[in-house]
Design goal:
Layout: H1 2-33, E1 45-48, H2 50-62, E2 68-73, H3 79-85, E3 90-95, H4 106-118, E4 123-129, H5 141-154, E5 157-161, H6 177-183, H7 190-193, E6 195-200, H8 201-204, E7 213-217, H9 220-229, H10 237-248, H11 250-277, E8 281-282, E9 290-294, H12 304-318, E10 323-324, E11 335-339, H13 345-382, H14 385-391
Parallel strand pairs: 2-3, 2-4, 4-5, 5-6
Antiparallel strand pairs: 1-7, 6-7, 8-9, 9-11, 10-11
Helix pairs in contact: 1-10, 2-3, 2-9, 11-13
The protein binds pyridoxal-5'-phosphate (PLP).
Pyridoxal-5'-phosphate (PLP) binds next to α2.
Length: 399
């Protein structure tokens, strides 16, 4: 009996040590991604089974059923599941539009807040993805300042999902919310405790199947509750061991991040220039594994029905699986998210060739339609009503 007790204690100590080592490596890795401009504290980090679990855990910790979180649209479609399904939390959209590159404005933030209030919902906070899924852009310092001011003013929380932080090709332009808190000397203030970061290795190391995510919170109570809740989504000890070894190899991680960014940048450029040659533009982006593509010129009308019709044609006729903007709650029809990182360069080339042929045919037929409509229009204008009446098959009145 004593023998088994010893073994049990030994195993427990080993697992705690393992957790400690991985958490330590993770905070260092997160600092490295942010150019070592911010230091993270291992005691504030809770391991979760991916960011999916981290986001849901935070909703359980921060909101009651029926409370609301404000999210800029377009947003990652998985949030409807992760934030709402089991927690009963409501998402209220912050309307971002193409006219300013889908940036968050104070009026849009205020409008969303009022909209939630009109619906009788208590706003608990704002959740952003930085860099953004699906836009592939990083939040500007002004936007981050705006969010912090809003959180101070409304006593709200900020959840910053920074799952794509290691994919920023232009590393100078990624600013974490943690950095802004530091720069504004907000440590120790009330709002400091209301800022929570979500991260996972799924995207930056390309390992979504291993389920390594985390909640990083400045609030002790949130850390404590999230730690208890993490039992529902643990990271296996084998995974913890593997990744603590991998992350401890600093030469490897530095090389990996650099090479990954270089390759993503190149892929994005190939996609953007390929689409440009087909007459299609993308939102200017600097991060992530995808581009936000403006296919409004390919729509048969300015509606979500037309977007769906186009999406179906791209899937069935071109053989490409792209995400329509409506799935990300975009309010303007015609935007699509196109991934460029989940295939070889050769496959990307084939995809672009096919897409270009499709887009060119579509644009040509639209132009022809417009031209014939134009001809018809000019004919209608050059001929008199009397001629039309005579030419019509329906000439009841003439008989
Ligand atoms: C913004 C964002 N958050 C969370 C997730 C979920 O990531 P994970 O695989 O770590 O659960 C994703 C996955 O695509 C995502 O894009």
């Amino acid at each position: 009996m004593i023998y088994y007790t010893y073994i049990y204690i030994y195993v427990c100590i080993t697992l705690i040590e393992l957790n400690f080592i991985l958490v330590q490596e993770l905070v260092e890795f997160m600092s490295k991604i942010r150019g070592n401009k911010v230091k993270f504290d291992a005691n504030k980090l809770v391991l979760t089974a991916g960011s999916t679990s981290a986001n849901e855990t935070l909703m359980f910790c921060l909101a009651d059923p029926g409370d609301a979180f404000l999210l800029p649209v377009p947003y990652y479609p998985g949030f409807d599941r992760d934030l709402k399904w089991r927690t009963g939390v409501e998402i209220v959209p912050i309307q971002c539009r193409s006219s300013n590159g889908f940036r968050i404005t104070s009026s849009a933030l205020e409008e969303a807040y009022l909209q939630a209030q009109d619906k009788g919902l208590k706003v608990k906070g704002v959740l952003v993805t930085n860099p953004s899924n699906p836009l592939g852009t990083t939040l500007t310092r002004d936007e981050l300042d705006l969010l912090i001011d809003f959180a101070i003013d409304k006593e709200a929380h900020i959840v910053s999902d920074e799952i794509f932080s290691g994919t920023v090709f232009d590393s100078q332009s990624f600013v974490s919310i943690a950095e802004v808190l530091n720069d504004r000397n907000l440590e120790g203030s009330e709002v400091f405790d209301r800022v929570h970061i979500v991260y996972s290795l799924s995207k930056d190391l390309g390992v979504p199947g291993f389920r390594i995510g985390m909640v990083y919170s400045n609030d002790e109570q949130v850390v404590s509750a999230a730690t208890k809740m993490s039992s529902f989504g643990l990271v296996s000890s084998q995974t913890q061991y593997t990744f603590s070894r991998m992350l401890s190899d600093k030469k490897f991680t530095a090389k990996y991040l650099k090479e990954n960014r270089k390759r993503l940048k190149r892929r994005k450029e190939i996609l953007v220039s390929g689409l440009k040659s087909a007459g299609i533009k993308c939102l200017k982006s600097n991060a992530c594994l995808f581009a936000w593509v403006d296919m409004r010129s390919l729509l048969s009308s300015d509606t979500f029905e037309a977007e769906k019709e186009l999406w179906k044609r791209i899937v069935y006729e071109v053989g490409l699986n792209v995400s329509p903007g409506s799935s990300c709650h975009c309010t303007e029809p015609g935007w699509f998210r196109m991934c460029f990182a989940n295939m070889s360069e050769e496959t990307l080339g084939v995809a672009l060739q096919r897409f270009k042929a499709f887009a060119e045919t579509l644009i040509r037929s639209k132009q022809q339609q417009q031209q014939s409509a134009g001809k018809c229009y000019s004919r209608t204008r050059s001929l008199t009503r009397w001629v039309f009446q005579l030419a019509s098959d329906d000439r009841e009145t003439d008989r």
